[in-house]
Amino acid sequence: VISRRSFLAASALPLAATPPRLDAARLRNRIEDLSVFGRPRGGTFADGVSRIGYSDTDITARRFVMNLMREAGAAPRIDAAGNIFCRRDGAENSLPAVLFGSHIDSVPDGGNFDGDLGSLASVEILRLMQEHGLRTRRPLEAVVWACEEATFRGNSLNGSRAAAGRLRPGEIEEVWAGLRKADAIRRIGGDPERIAEARISPGRYHTYVELHIEQGGTLARDGVPIGVVDGIVSIDRHDVVIRGMANHAGTTPMADRQDALIAASRLTLAVREVVTAEPGSQVGTVGHLAVTPNAANVIPGLVNLTIELRDLSSDKLDRIAARIRARAEAIAGETRTSIQMTAGLRNPSALADAGVQKVIESAAHSLGLRARRLPSGAGHDAQMMATVAPMGMIFVPSVAGISHSPKEFTAWEDCAHGADVLFQTVVALAA
Ligand SMILES: [Zn+2]
Description:
Elements: E1 8-9, H1 24-34, H2 56-71, E2 76-78, E3 84-88, E4 97-103, H3 116-131, E5 134-135, E6 140-145, H4 158-163, E7 175-176, E8 179-180, H5 181-187, E9 205-213, H6 218-222, E10 226-232, E11 234-243, E12 247-248, H7 260-276, E13 283-292, E14 298-299, E15 302-311, H8 314-335, E16 338-347, E17 350-351, H9 354-366, E18 371-376, H10 381-385, E19 391-396, H11 412-430
Parallel strand pairs: 4-6, 4-9, 9-19, 10-18
Antiparallel strand pairs: 1-5, 2-3, 3-6, 7-8, 10-17, 10-19, 11-15, 11-16, 12-14, 13-15
Helix pairs in contact: 1-3, 2-3, 3-11, 7-8, 9-11
This protein binds zinc ion.
Zinc ion binds next to loops.
């Protein structure tokens, strides 16, 4: 529980004898309010949300959240990358602030908790501080990162990557669905010409904390209400181009075929075999496959596919990629195709700070909540922030481990628990 010492009175207001708890009903209302931006026409909360980063829907939702920030007495500020920050002064404003937040964009047909919970809980914390006239020693700053989910050429963590100074050269000139990334950033109030100014230098923030749904099923399965993330896995993408020869499906004998889809099928199975050949929690997926010409009566001449590999250890991922590459060469020879495998985006793994993990754990315990350490198999803005500040993440259970789906759900009680742990954590860090 937050000690009286953690708070300094903002004015002549006395300190609360019992530190406040976040208003669980209001947090739920906020999540329900936000869900209408991007809800399918005629649908309900249970039908999920499509709130693609940089879209009109995203822009109206961002406006809604910025109004909540104003109601919380904190003026929002949009940086050059389109990230929204809002700050509550501390008693000693020359000290680096404690930063906390998440994102509000979604995948197509996504759920109402991924990103939304952490973002709205963060704004609620500022609101609660305002209502109770409470002040910490360090400033507090909430953030809503721009376009966390993949949009441009499959690039994710767009806003936080800019803040970490990790955009690729020329990335803001890339075009997706007819929209230049620079123009997309401008649409949401950013300034692509000054994108470098969005960069956060190490030391600017004291710590970064993110509350998020687990998106896996381990906490829900074991009935543990709070997860303390020890690290976020690296995500490596490889683009594969397989060239065979398109030919008549009726007149070409089986022995004479150079079928790119046969090669792709064998490679897909090889990915599974290589990934499961050594112990550990690494995962590998062929999730995207484009077959050309993709016609019933033509032998596939070309297949583009993606291989995605995830683990906390980059060395292990390099080892696995090399083995897959060797298998690809063999398969190309056997199927008389060519297989070209190119390393794409690597979001490096990020370890949570040991000190921040301890603070989260004691916050949970002081609230009488069980907590367990676990890695995150999903990518998060927090992994970018880990490159500029000590980072910590709080997970709450996802029912049945379902996410990136309208069926994504976290019990309201668990949402409130997570928000309370976030609140206690940032106040302890800012003390
Ligand atoms: Zn998310």
